[in-house]
Design goal:
It is a single chain. With 176 residues, this protein is of the alpha+beta class. The protein is built from 3 helices and 6 strands, in the order H-H-E-E-E-E-E-H-E. The chain has a 6-stranded mixed sheet with strand order 1-2-6-5-4-3. Strand 4 and strand 5 form a beta hairpin. The protein is globular, with a radius of gyration of 19 Å. Residues 1-14, 151-158 and 166-176 have low confidence and may be disordered.
């Protein structure tokens, strides 16, 4: 009898955990993305709530990316290891099935509000349909966040990044 009660209680808990939290919006700052979420991921310190999924975003065109959490925001966050264009190269491979992500501008440093050091880097990318040189620019934009290179991190740790994808044509404001 006690086992049945335990089973019912645990099933009820699982059902309640699947309910989206009313009023919850996931809008972390650049500092929070790098200093908390990415740093915890690299340090292998998991969170109880899976807010940012890990997928290979380059296996998807932006409109086919798995939508996460609240789709009304039209913003998604993913952990992704940076692929390489060539095995012995540092050049990233950002090609998808029907296009590519092109970097725009330079890497912008992200500073901690607590200290004065650079805790991460942010790169903006725009999606182009077609092949390099012949691609057509789309309204899709992505921000890539990564840890800065430093002597105490291994190559694998530095290769992890958070990718924040935004369809600007549906967004209320441009993501900076």
């Amino acid at each position: 009898m006690d086992i049945d009660k335990m089973h019912v209680t645990s099933r009820k808990q699982v059902d309640e955990e699947d309910i989206p939290l009313p009023g919850f919006r996931f809008h972390p700052t650049d500092e929070e993305l790098v200093g908390f979420y990415l740093r915890r991921k690299v340090d292998k310190k998991p969170l109880e709530i899976d807010l940012i999924r890990q997928i290979d975003i380059y296996k998807y065109d932006p409109w086919d990316l798995p939508q996460t959490h609240d789709v009304r925001d039209n913003e998604w966050y993913f952990f992704c290891k940076r692929g390489r264009k060539y095995r012995n190269s540092i050049r990233p491979n950002r090609v998808t099935g029907s296009g590519f992500w092109k970097a725009t501008g330079i890497d912008r440093p992200i500073y901690s509000s607590v200290g004065s050091g650079c805790i991460g880097l942010k790169k903006s990318l725009v999606y182009y349909r077609g092949s390099a040189g012949k691609g057509t620019k789309t309204e899709w934009m992505m921000h890539e966040f990564r840890l800065p290179p430093s002597s105490h991190m291994t190559h694998n740790q530095n290769a992890k990044s958070i990718n924040h994808t935004d369809d600007k044509s549906f967004s209320h404001e441009a993501v900076s």
